[in-house]
Amino acid sequence: MTAPLKSCKTAADGLQLLNVSKTFDQTEVLHDIDLTVAPGEVLALVGPSGAGKTTLCRIIAGLETPSSGQCYMNGTDMTAMPPGDRRVAMMFESYALYPHLSVGDNVRSPLLARAKGGLPPTAGQHIEQLLAVLEIAHLSDRLPSELSGGQKQRTALARALIQNPNALLLDEPISHLDAKLRHKLRGEIRQILNARPHPTIWSTPDGLEGLSVGDRIAVLIAGRIEQIGTPEDIWLRPASVKVARLFGDPPMNILPGELQDGQGRIDFHCRSMTMTLPPALAASAKAIKGRAAFLGLRPNGLTLHRGDDQSAIATTVYSIESFGKYAIVTLITPPGDLIKLKTADVQDLKLGDDVGVRYASDQLLLFDGTTGRAAYVYS
Amino acid sequence: MEQKSSIGLGLRTAAAVICALIVLFPVLWMVAMVFKPADVMFARPTVFFYTPTLANFAYVIEQGFVNNLITSLALGIFSTILVVIIGTPAAYSFARFELKAKEDLFLFILASRMAPPVCLVIPFYLIYAKVGLLDTFVGLSLAYMTFNLSFYVWVLRSFCRDLPVELEEAAILEGWSKAQVFRRIVFPLLRNGIVATSVLCFIFAWNEFLFAFMLGGDSVQPLPVAIPKLITAQGVRWGEVAVVGVVSLIPVLAVVVLLQRHIVRGLTMGAVKG
pLDDT tens digits, residue range A327-357? Predict the structure, then answer.
C-alpha cells in the first residue's frame, strides 16, 4: 500500500504533492512530502501538534508557498496558483467564522464570491438542504457568537462543503469539541464525505480518530511522513516506534533492550526480562541481531497471570483505571519499567499485588534500536 | 445582612454622586450662567432666583458665532474623514503586511506626535505662507489631519492586529478579491474601532486652539479662537462666554451619546474577545 505512491507521478485525478518542503527561518517544517489523495478518498493526516499538519494544509490551499516541490490538482500544477483560484475549501482549526455575519450568510459567502451576477435561484434551497443535513437549519439567523462549539463546527463545515471544491481540507475539525460530540460528529462527517467526489484531507492529532475516519492514513511526525497506509497497515504494522506510539489507547508499551544471539535463536534482553523471539519474528530480526532494539507490546495483547509462571514478566500492580467494561492496568517491573495493559479481568486485583504478564507471541513488534524503524516483516 | 448591603449601596451611591458633582460643578456653573442677566451674574450674595433672559444668546448670534460654530464642525468632520480615509489602510498595512523597516517607520509615525504642538506651529506657518495655505480651511484641516493621523494609525493598528488573520484567509480561499475581503470582512469588524478612534480625533480638532489661532487667521475661525472676541473693551461678557461654552459642549456630547455603543465596544475590544 505504501510503496506505489512515490512512483505514480502522473496521477491525473485528485490531489498530489511531490517533494514538498517548507522552511521557516531556517527551520525545516516539512521535509520532502509526497502524497496522493484520490477523488472521493479521505486521507487522515495524523501527527502530534507541531508536526506540520496545518502548514501542509496551508500549502495545499495556497496560503503558504512551499520552499520546494509541487502541488498538482487533477494533473494541473497549481504550485504558483493564487489561493482563490484553486477552489480548495479549508475548514480552519479555529473555524474562522465571520463574526458579523449570520450562520446563513457565512455559508452563503463562498457562493456569493464565485457567483457572477447574483446567486442562482437554486442556491437558497441548496444551502437550506445542507444546513438541514447538518442539523443547523434552525440556527440560520444566529450570529456565530450565539452558537455552541458543536454548532460553530457544523457551520464551518457547511461553509466548506457548500463550495463543491476540488479538494477539501479539514484541519483538526473536531479536536476542540468534548468527547461525546467528537464521537458523534466523527461518524456524521464521515457519512457526508462518503457521497463526495473530491479528495479530502482530515488532519488530527488523535491516532484513533485518524484510524476511524481515514480511507488511508498519512502519519506526519516532525515534518516527515513516517508512514502512509490503510488503517489496518498502520495499526498492525507500524513502520516505526514513533508511529506505534501515536496509535492505540493506551499507546503501545515500548521496551528498550538488545537482541542477543542465542544458540539457534534470538533473545530480546532488557532490564525487566529476557525473552526468546518467536520464530517468525526471529527470522526478520536477523539483520539487527546483536544490536539495540525496541520491543513493542500492545496493551490489549497482554494478559494478567496470577501465580508462579516462568514465562510471564514479573510485575507489581501500580495503578488501575477502571472504565466499567474494561480497565487499564499499569504494572511496574522490579527495575522500574511501566507496562500498561487493557483487560476486563480486574476483579480482586489490588494495588501492590504481584502479578505476571503474558504476551501473545503474534502481537509482538520489534523495532531497530538506532533508527526506530520496524524490524519485522509480517505477511 | 440585607439591611447592611442596602446601607452599603446607599453610601456608594452617595459617594458616586459627590464625585460626579465635584467633576461637573464648573459645567453646572456655566450652564447656570447662560440664562442669567448681566446684573445678577456675579451678585453677592449669589442670586438663585432671577428672570431668565435670552439676551446672551441674541448677542452671540448677532456677533456671527453661528459661522464659527459651523467652521468648527466642518473642520472637525472634514479633518476626521481625511484621517479615516488615509489612516485606515495605513493602519491595516502596518498590521498585516511585510514592509521594510516596518517598526522604524511606525515609530517615526508616532514620533510626529511626540513633539509639543507649539514646536511645530512655526514651521507650519512658514510652509503654509509659502504654499498659500495660510488662512484657508483646507490648510487648517490638513494640519489637524497630520496630528490625528499618527494617533489614529497607532491605535487602529492594534485593532487590526486583534482581527484573526484566518478570517481573511478563509475569505480569500472562498474566492473573494483582496479589496472585497477588506470591504466585506475587515471593515465591518473594524467599525467599532474606527468609530471610537475617530471620535477622539474629532474631539481633538474641536478643542484645538493654537493652530487655529496661528494658521486660520481671520477667515477661518473655529469657536475656540472666536471666544476671545467676547473680551471687549467694556469687560468680559461672561454670559455670552457661557453660551458659547455650553453650545460647544453639545456636538461632542451628541457624538458620544449617538455612537456610545460603538465607542464602548471599541474601547474594550482588545480586552473582551467576543
Answer: 899 999 888 889 998 888 777 788 888 888 8
Residue of B163, B169, B173 for testing the chain A interface, max A β-carbons within 10 Å: B173
CATH of the domain at B83: 1.10.3720.10
In chain B, the number of structural domains is: 1
Helices (H) then strands (E): counts for chain B:
13, 2
Q: What are the residues facing A88 on neighbouring strands? A: A167
Cα–Cα distance, A218 to A1 (Å, whole number): 12
3-state secondary structure of B41: coil
Q: Is A63 on the interface with B (CB under 8 A)?
A: yes
Nearest chain B residue to A105, by CA: B184
Closest by CA position to A160, among listed A193, A183, A185: A193
- Extract the C-alpha cell encoding B245: 461654552
CB contact under 8 A, B171 and A113: yes
Residue B73 has which C-alpha cell?
464642525
Q: Which CATH architecture has domain A3-237?
A: 3-Layer(aba) Sandwich (3.40)
Task: Tell me how far apart the alpha carbons of residues A344 and B191 are, in angstroms, rounded to a whole number.
Answer: 60
Q: How many degrees, rounded to 5, is the angle at CA A51 between CA A45 and CA A52?
A: 75
* Residue B234 maps to a domain: yes
Q: Region A76-99: what's the mean pLDDT? A: 92
Q: Are B196 and B214 in contact (CB under 8 A)?
A: no
Domain residue ranges in chain A: 3-237, 253-368
In 3D space, the residue among A229, A194, A218, A209 whose CA is nearest the CA of residue A60 turns out to be A218
Instruction: Determine, yes or no, domain membership for B24.
Output: no
The CATH number of the domain covering residues in A253-368: 2.40.50.140
A-chain CB neighbours of B184 within 8 Å are: 109
Q: For B142-194, write each residue's pLDDT tens digit.
A: 999 988 999 999 999 999 998 899 999 999 999 999 999 999 999 999 988 89
Cβ-contact A54, A203 below 8 angstroms: yes
Residue span of the structural domain in which B197 resides = 57-268
- Residue A18 near residue A74, CB atoms below 8 Å: no
A65 and B CB contact within 8 Å: no
Nearest 5°: the CA angle A132, A136, A140 is 100
Whether A256 contacts A339, CB under 8 Å: no
Taking every pair of Cα atoms in chain B, the longest distance, rounded to a whole number of angstroms, is 76
Residue B9 belongs to some domain of the structure: no
Across the interface, do B174 and A90 touch by the CB < 8 Å criterion? no
